[in-house]
Structures are given as structure tokens and as C-alpha cells.
Design a protein that fits this description.
Shape: globular
Radius of gyration: 15 Å
Number of helices: 5
Distance between the termini: 30 Å
Strand content: 25-35%
Helix content: 25-40%
Low-confidence stretches: none
Number of domains: 1
Strand order of the largest sheet: 2-1-3-5-4
Order of helices and strands: HEHEHEHEHE
Oligomer: single chain
Length: 129
């Protein structure tokens, strides 16, 4: 799994929190490929609030946020959490799989709105030293 390989190569389990778009990605599979890393699935605003508390821990220096561009969480908890992280931390986007022309055509027909051209992406955030 490419995403897990990038996280493992660029991060340390000791100071990294991995957040996963619960409805759209398999956090269990990611956990399997990232033994020792703290992984949290975000399904609700309560999950996002718990993640915010963990991020505030000074021991956490590195946050990865895996998501699909279509936020299906109640009240768009993922969009709000991502916006907060992008505003408060230095980050870099890692796109992993773009939507095919067929996917894009089907989404237009179904009136499905997405926030990017990438089916899966990861934000890599670092706290300042």
C-alpha cells in the first residue's frame, strides 16, 4: 500500500497521528500496514473532536490525514477538520489516485460534488519546532 509506505518512510510512530476518512477508506487496512502508528478513523464530529485533542498533545509532531474528496460525514466534519489543520499547521498534499474520465462523467451525471480531482489524497502536517 503506497500511502502506508510513504507514512512509514517519512514519519515516526512515536510522534505521529494518522487520521482516516472513516466512511470512505479502510482504517483497519491502514493500521495493518502501519504497526505501531496511532491511527484514528473519523466518522463523526465527536471523532474529529477527539482527534483535535490528540493533535494538541505536544508529543504529536506529525499528523497525516487520509481522505476522499467527497465528505459524507454528518455536518462535513472532515472538511472542517482539514480546514482547521491547513490553517494552523504547515502541510503538504500527497495525491494518490486521480478520478478517471469515466468517474468524472458519472459524478457529473449523478450531481456528485467533490473537492478535488483525486480519489484519495493525504495531507501531511508538521508542527513547528
Amino acid at each position: 500500500m503506497t500511502i502506508a509506505g510513504d507514512i512509514a518512510a517519512k514519519s515516526s510512530p512515536a510522534d505521529t497521528l494518522v487520521l482516516v476518512d472513516g466512511p470512505n477508506l479502510s482504517g483497519v487496512v491502514l493500521e495493518y500496514y502501519l504497526p505501531g502508528f496511532t491511527t484514528r478513523q473519523i466518522f463523526t464530529e465527536q471523532d474529529a473532536q477527539s482527534a483535535r485533542r490528540e493533535i494538541a498533545n505536544p508529543a504529536i509532531r506529525h499528523v497525516w490525514f487520509m481522505r476522499n474528496p467527497r465528505d459524507v460525514t454528518p455536518d462535513h466534519a472532515l472538511v472542517r477538520l482539514e480546514a482547521e489543520l491547513r490553517k494552523s499547521l504547515s502541510g503538504q498534499l500527497h495525491p494518490y489516485l486521480s478520478f478517471s474520465p469515466t468517474h468524472k462523467a458519472l459524478m457529473r451525471v449523478m450531481n456528485v460534488q467533490v473537492s478535488s480531482d483525486w480519489m484519495y489524497s493525504a495531507w501531511e502536517f508538521r508542527k513547528p519546532n
